[in-house]
Design brief:
The complex is a heterodimer of chains A (416) and B (209).
Chain A (H helix, E strand, L loop, with lengths): L2 H13 L4 H20 L5 H38 L15 H11 L10 H17 L18 H9 L1 H12 L3 H32 L4 H7 L3 E2 L3 E2 L6 H17 L11 H4 L9 H25 L16 H22 L5 H28 L4 H22 L16
Antiparallel strand pairs in A: 1-2
Helix pairs in contact in A: 1-2, 2-3, 3-12, 3-13, 4-12, 5-7, 5-12, 7-8, 8-10, 8-14, 10-12, 10-14, 12-13, 14-15
Chain B lengths: L5 H19 L27 E5 L14 H5 L5 E7 L5 E11 L8 H5 L5 E3 L15 E2 L1 H4 E3 H7 L1 H51 L1
Parallel strand pairs in B: 1-6
Antiparallel strand pairs in B: 1-4, 2-3, 3-5
Helix pairs in contact in B: 5-6
Chain lengths: 416, 209
């Protein structure tokens, strides 16, 4: 083997975009072996394993941090356009280098630690926040055969690790010794635990139907096309649609995004648990929030939107990993769209929504999925499950979330 | 269409219309009204004013309207004007300022100097990019920087400048008319005196005779 052969392989790899990342990884491993032969030693297998792991880690971290940077400017742009403003357009073409300016600003800021803060915990909190967020993307299948760790209990592991960010938020709030921080952290915990339930419930439904907890297996279960053109994604079944919407809103709440951004509601709590953070630590929190958001939406793509599957049979020429990121980009756009539209919830409304609507609806979707399965997964099952989710939806909407009293005989609730 | 959750869809449609409208329907009057400041400048309304300046007609040395009467200096509430009258080589006071400084970091733009000036000399400018790192060299405007032509005045405040010009013209005509009347009066008096003298001359021989 020599270096020229390795170079010759590059154009060959580029000819098949479907397997480009996998072949690229192999190329890097062969390059390491070649380096070893140059020195005159056989590279031990543990070094190759280590290099393999490093390549994957670097690739995932780089991709997600680039996405974070792009998202931070894209979000501001879309938000501005929805409000008929221009948004950032000063740094670079169309303001594309805004993240660079933001990063420099963040890094050069003074890192303030309050005098009475618990300094160790205050320092650890952003790290505890970022680490789980960076572990989450490891579990997602980005393309055919492209998953860093193909865990058979991937979904379970995802939620177990994802819950770590709650601890970090409470660490941040508690260590800051600031009433706004602790109130924001308490709100965040209340919100995240409440919404964890419908989040996990809707994922459980998919796991039941697909018969596996492995993300790759779930994506494979959504492969193929009904009638030759209609994708078998779970979102196109009634129970799947409901579970997908529930998952989407729970994901919004989990990642503390508008309209569930009560923990950071600046009109009430300054900045919640972020109040006493500045400079690089604040940037770490911000980064963790966005990476976590991408990860949980990547899971949504995996569970409901068919992961890396193409939406129509003739579109399979676009590589599978492209489809994953196209879907993720669409979801990211929809998040900003929702943020541009909806005002912040009131705390009691938020709790009501979680316990009185989302949780019953996730159970309804579970029953509906069971009916769909036992009716033979065909059109009949489709109809039965549609009825089974429509009835609770309209009943809950009518009895719990519609005002039936006029202004004259208005009952004043405790919170009002 | 009214079902539980329909309000969310209506809201989403509204924000989507605004979002895509800002790209494809830019002619709409309410879209993207932000002024991109350093590239785009606002067209200031005619009545806008910032700091005073001195008007001159034609030549900045000879055409200066100010006669250094110091009324504005006395009237100025924050006392930001400094005037020194010019003298010729013999030490005789001239009707023009030697020094005319306005400290625009003190000036509050009240326009009292403009209203008190009897010679239509000091007027309000509408410059707004005068910020600077230096307190004295660039914010205390000397006479050279304050002097601006009547044409410039017409370009920023056309109505007001036209009124001022009309007033000056009327005053000039009135003065001319008065001078003419005085000249006529003088001529008439001279003629009367001559006639009287002639009559006296003609009557003298008669008395002698």
């Amino acid at each position: 083997m020599n270096f020229i052969d390795l170079l010759k392989r590059i154009p060959e790899i580029c000819k098949t975009p479907e397997t480009l990342p996998l072949e690229g990884k192999k190329l890097i491993l062969d390059f390491v072996t070649w380096l070893g032969s140059l020195v005159g030693i056989a590279v031990p297998p543990w070094v190759l394993t280590l290099v393999n792991i490093l390549v994957v880690i670097v690739a995932i971290i780089a991709v997600f941090l680039i996405m974070f940077a792009l998202m931070s400017v894209w979000e501001r742009k879309i938000l501005a356009r929805a409000q008929n403003r221009y948004g950032p357009n000063r740094v670079g073409p169309w303001g594309l280098f805004q993240p660079v300016a933001d990063g420099i600003k963040m890094l050069t800021k003074e890192d303030i630690v309050p005098r009475n803060a618990d300094k160790v915990v205050h320092f650890i909190a952003p790290i505890v926040m970022l680490v789980p967020a960076l572990i989450l993307p490891v579990l997602l299948p980005y393309g055919r055969g492209m998953v860093a760790i193909d865990l058979s209990v991937g979904i379970l592991f995802f939620f177990a690790v994802g819950a770590g960010s709650e601890v970090a938020i409470f660490l941040a709030g508690w260590s800051s010794r600031n009433k706004y921080s602790i109130l924001g952290a308490m709100r965040a915990i209340a919100q995240m635990i409440s919404y964890e339930l419908p989040l996990v419930m809707s994922a459980v439904i998919v796991a039941l139907v697909a018969g596996t907890l492995s993300p790759t297996g779930i994506v494979e279960a959504q492969g193929g096309y009904q009638f030759g053109f209609f994708p078998n994604w779970f979102v196109f079944t009634p129970w799947g649609f409901v579970a997908c919407v529930l998952f989407y809103f729970s994901a919004l709440a989990e990642s503390n995004r508008s309209p569930f951004d009560l923990p950071e509601g600046e009109s009430e709590l300054v900045a919640g648990h972020l109040t006493e953070y500045s400079g690089f630590k604040y940037a770490l929190f911000f980064m963790a929030e966005y990476v976590g958001m991408f990860a949980i939406n990547g899971l949504l793509v995996t569970l409901f939107l068919g992961g890396y599957q193409a939406p129509l049979p003739f579109l399979t020429f676009i590589p599978s990993w492209c489809w994953f990121f196209i879907k993720l980009a669409f979801l990211a756009f929809s998040l900003v769209w929702v943020r541009a539209t909806m005002p912040r919830f009131r705390i009691d409304q938020m709790m009501q929504f979680a316990w009185k609507f989302m949780l019953p609806m996730s159970f309804a979707a579970l029953f509906s999925a069971a009916a769909w399965h036992y009716a033979g997964r065909g059109l009949l099952g489709w109809g039965i499950s549609a009825v089974l989710v429509a009835i609770p939806y309209f009943a809950l909407g009518y009895f719990c979330f519609t005002r039936h009293h006029s202004a004259d005989n208005r009952r004043y609730l405790f919170s009002e | 269409m009214n079902f539980p959750g329909s309000g969310i869809f209506k809201g989403m449609v509204v924000s989507a219309i605004n979002l895509f409208g800002s790209y494809f329907d830019r002619a709409h009057a309410k879209r993207l009204i932000t002024e991109q400041y350093p590239e785009e400048r606002p067209t200031l309304p005619e009545a806008s004013r910032s700091f005073p300046f001195l008007v001159f007609d034609g030549d900045p040395e000879k055409g200066i309207r100010c006669v250094a009467c110091k009324i504005c200096e006395k009237e100025c509430p924050p006392q930001c004007i400094l005037i020194e009258q010019d003298r010729d080589e013999n030490g005789k006071l001239l009707r023009r300022p030697k020094v005319f400084n306005i400290d625009i970091s003190v000036c509050m733009g009240c326009q009292i100097c403009v209203e008190s000036c009897p010679f239509e000399s000091i007027r309000m400018d509408n410059i707004y990019e005068v910020s600077s790192y230096d307190r004295f060299d660039s914010l205390v405007l000397p006479k050279e920087k304050l002097l601006k032509s009547n044409e410039y005045y017409h370009s920023i405040h056309p109505t007001e400048a036209a009124e001022t010009d009309a007033r000056i013209e009327a005053a000039r005509l009135k003065k001319e008319a008065a001078a003419k009347a005085a000249a006529q009066k003088m001529a008439a008096a001279k003629a009367a005196a001559e006639a009287k003298a002639a009559a006296e001359q003609s009557s003298q021989p008669e008395s002698q005779a």
